[in-house]
Design brief:
CATH class: Alpha Beta
Strand order of the largest sheet: 5-4-1-8-9-10-11-12-13
Largest sheet: 9 strands, mixed
Oligomer: single chain
Number of helices: 11
Number of strands: 13
Radius of gyration: 18 Å
Shape: globular
Mean pLDDT: 94
Structural class: alpha/beta
CATH superfamily: Ribokinase
CATH architecture: 3-Layer(aba) Sandwich
Distance between the termini: 34 Å
Order of helices and strands: EEEHEHEEEEHEHHEHHEEEHHHH
Strand content: 15-25%
Helix content: 25-40%
């Protein structure tokens, strides 16, 4: 199968109480693509700067990621710096330099427009909308967003959400988007925006809860999944995008897009996120193989059967 992913590629400077790194390869496209590549061929669309070395293109190619949709522009690659304390659920942004990402205008190659699965990374909702309008009847659209866009471009975001099948956000963003203090009421409100037509809004809402797992809401049901318990958690950067990669990747191989498979996909997403946080940046995802994923999936499934 094929998955189209549109978003950012970045160089991150990360500091946690346990690890630190400068100019670490990151961005939503990197984490999503590395995770999803275990299930499908990935076609990322993004922009990088003159400082993006050939070795990174080779890395993508090695992991079943087609880099022809990446544009190399004049200037520096998007960069971000963040710091975590011992509570790894919270981070402080030191700086964000958009650089070449400032003028990013995703134009899909003709061959990409018919790819059946689309992931929209965290970016301006108007860019997300532009990508949706370029697509030819995709089977599934999954999107991420953040508090900045909810606050600054709410109207545009709500318009974009009408074309989204699945929205993945965290607890604070759920409350902010719905303008509700209670998480359950906020989630119910967001999925209630779904109209009878297939493209009527986020029919499924996934709420990321960090080390506490996730909640998944549909119009009729809700589902809670714990995180995979680890002894060593060093860097949570990119875990949400790795989750999305595992989630969409699994669904791309399924005949039916139903709630049962959504739940199973959430387990695979959780597994990919658990590998991501075990080392700095995407290091663990780069070394990961399918056998390790299946072993952890079986272990997690066995645990879930006990509750």
């Amino acid at each position: 199968m094929k998955i189209l992913a549109v978003g950012s590629i970045a160089f991150d400077t990360i500091k946690t109480p346990f690890v630190r790194g400068k100019n670490v390869l990151g961005g939503s496209l990197t984490y999503f693509s590395l995770a999803a590549s275990h299930f499908a061929k990935i076609y990322p669309v993004g922009v990088v700067g003159h400082d993006f070395k050939p070795k990174y293109f080779k890395l993508y190619q090695k992991h079943n990621i087609d880099s022809r949709g990446l544009t190399k522009a004049t200037g520096k690659t998007f960069s971000w710096s963040g710091q975590y304390d011992y509570d790894l659920n919270n981070r402080r942004t030191i700086y964000t330099h958009l650089n070449v990402f400032t003028n990013f205008n995703p134009v899909l190659p003709p061959a990409y427009k018919s790819i059946p699965y689309l992931f929209l990374g965290n970016m301006d909702p108007q860019l997300q909308l532009s990508v949706c309008h370029q697509m030819t009847n995709p089977r599934l659209i999954v999107a991420d967003t953040m508090n900045y866009w909810i606050e600054r471009k709410r109207k545009e975001l709500l318009t974009t959400l009408k074309l989204i099948d699945i929205l993945i956000i965290n607890e604070a963003e759920t409350r902010q988007l719905a303008k509700e203090h209670n998480l359950y009421k906020a989630a119910r409100k967001i999925v209630s925006w779904t109209e009878p037509t297939r493209r009527g809004g986020p029919a499924t809402l996934i709420i990321k809860r960090g080390e506490y797992g996730l909640l998944m809401f549909t119009r009729k049901n809700w589902f809670s999944l714990p995180a995979f318990i680890l002894e060593d958690i060093f860097d949570p950067t990119g875990a949400g995008d790795a989750f999305a990669g595992g989630f969409v990747g699994f669904l791309s191989r399924q005949k039916y897009l139903n709630e049962k498979n959504f739940r199973k996909a959430a387990i695979y997403g959780t597994i990919l996120a658990s590998f991501c946080v075990e080392q700095l940046g995407p290091k663990k995802l780069i070394k990961l193989n399918r056998r390790q994923i299946q072993e952890r999936f079986k272990k997690f499934k066995k645990f879930l059967a006990l509750i």
